[in-house]
């Protein structure tokens, strides 16, 4: 086993070194080098290339240089989510997001806001008739281990977990609405003109259910205010910053697009309703937490279907795991550090290339492709090596495949 690990690692190191050498022009034949051209240059005029991160604090000089070289736009990974930015009724924490926005501005990088409203990472006080004292956020309990050591015990559902977090009676619809309105007005207002757009609502659609309905989650904003909370949130955000692009963002919403079933069908119903109700929706964010066997036909059809509603599309949280078949909100689970066979990195490069071929075909409606992290260590899917750069920031085969495609040529031959 140990030998296999060493072999796997050596092959990968050779592979990474080869790719790196090619990128740096060490082959002697390069016409375009990574030093002179980053991802954003390769896709200039097609769509923006982005990455997520709560930069610049705790990022190394190398990481920041990599960001400046490759990305047009940054999505704050966590610091603008409702809990970190607005932990208590009148308390806003703008320190981290202010620094991020300023750093991006100083370095000529755009910022995408994430996320104004969500059922997760939102403090319970939003929903309590008498807001309880703020506490450290409780972690959702892990499933108890069985005797066999497998995590198969019962785990509270998201809705049970949410309900348990609420102290005392629930706030009325009006009170909860007013709180969300103030939140949106304050946060959007603070960054007006400095942020190109917002994920207004994140992950409203439940995972399984009747694809003939919107299948909204049955707790949080959807229970306390109701389905029209989305329409109102888009309108409030638009009033404060009419120039900001406003997106609905979700995972696995491409699934079922070819057959017009599943979560995709629900997302189409939801978006049609929002448009009918006059919500100023600019576009849809397909998160894109994918794996080696993701159904690419669904991805392409979803883009076509959203465009048919007159909407723009962005891929907002892209990562393709080099191992494992989980996706969406569950893509971060089961991280491990087992060796990944070198051929998986080649397959990963093929999948990334095929995805970018789709994005290029639809670049008239695709505004932005954002990776969820910058390297295999700066990733919520650590251990599954889902991004373009390894933990040492060395480009992987997937990076080269995307660069070659974007530049329309093989960058390391004449
Ligand atoms: C979802 C959210 C992101 C992030 C990821 C995990 O996709 O939209 O903000 O929390 O889960 O990193």
Describe what you observe in this structure.
The protein is of the alpha/beta class and 414 residues long. The protein has a single domain, classed as Glycosidases (TIM Barrel, Alpha-Beta Barrel). Helix content is 37%, strand content 12%. The chain has helices spanning 2-23, 39-42, 61-70, 82-85, 95-106, 158-165, 173-190, 221-224, 229-240, 262-276, 296-308, 342-361, 397-407; strands spanning 48-52, 73-75, 110-118, 197-202, 245-250, 283-286, 289-290, 312-320, 366-371. Strands 1-2-3-4-5-6-8-9 form an eight-stranded parallel barrel, surrounded by five helices. Helix 7 runs parallel beside helix 9 and helix 12 (342-361) packs parallel to helix 13 (397-407). Mean pLDDT is 88; it is low at 1-34 and 146-150. Bound molecules: alpha-D-galactopyranose (GLA).
Taken as a percent bin, the fraction of beta residues is 5-15%
- What is the gyration radius calculated from CA atoms? 22 Å
> What's the structural domain tally?
1
Order of helices and strands: HHEHEHHEHHEHHEHEEHEHEH
């Amino acid at each position: 086993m140990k030998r296999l690990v060493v072999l796997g690692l050596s092959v990968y190191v050779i592979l990474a070194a080869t790719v790196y050498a090619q990128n740096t022009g060490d082959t002697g034949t390069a016409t375009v080098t990574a030093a002179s051209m980053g991802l954003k240059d390769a896709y200039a005029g097609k769509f923006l290339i982005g990455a997520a991160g709560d930069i610049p604090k705790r990022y190394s000089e190398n990481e920041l240089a990599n960001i400046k070289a490759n990305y047009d736009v940054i999505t704050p990974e966590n610091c603008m989510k409702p809990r970190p930015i607005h932990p208590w009724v009148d308390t806003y924490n703008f320190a981290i997001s202010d620094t991020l926005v300023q750093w991006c501005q100083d370095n000529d990088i755009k910022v995408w806001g994430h996320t104004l409203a969500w059922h997760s990472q939102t403090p319970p006080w939003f929903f309590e008739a008498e807001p309880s004292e703020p506490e450290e956020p409780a972690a959702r309990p892990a499933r108890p281990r069985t005797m066999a050591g497998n995590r198969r015990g019962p785990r509270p559902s998201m809705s049970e977990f949410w309900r348990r977090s609420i102290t005392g009676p629930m706030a009325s619809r009006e009170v909860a609405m007013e709180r969300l309105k103030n939140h949106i007005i304050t946060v959007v207002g603070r960054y007006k003109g400095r942020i190109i757009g917002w994920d207004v609502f994140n992950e409203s659609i439940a995972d399984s259910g009747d694809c003939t309905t919107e299948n909204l989650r049955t707790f949080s904003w959807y229970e306390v205010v109701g389905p029209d909370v989305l329409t109102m949130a888009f309108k409030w955000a638009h009033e404060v910053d009419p120039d900001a692009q406003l997106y609905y963002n979700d995972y696995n919403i491409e699934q079922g697009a070819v057959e017009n079933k599943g979560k995709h069908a629900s997302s189409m119903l939801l978006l049609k309703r929002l448009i009918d109700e006059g919500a100023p929706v600019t576009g849809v964010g397909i998160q894109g937490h994918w794996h080696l066997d993701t159904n690419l036909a669904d991805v392409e059809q979803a883009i076509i279907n959203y465009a048919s509603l007159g909407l723009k599309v962005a891929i907002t949280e892209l990562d393709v795991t080099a191992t494992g078949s989980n996706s969406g909100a569950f893509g971060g689970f089961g991280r491990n550090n087992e060796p990944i066979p070198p051929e998986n990195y080649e397959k990963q490069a093929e999948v990334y290339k095929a995805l970018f071929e789709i994005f290029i075909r639809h670049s008239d409606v695709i505004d932005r492709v954002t990776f969820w992290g910058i390297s295999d260590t700066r990733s919520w899917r650590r251990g599954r090596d889902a991004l373009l750069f390894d933990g040492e920031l060395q480009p992987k085969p997937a990076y080269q495949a995307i660069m070659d495609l974007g530049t329309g040529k093989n960058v390391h031959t004449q």
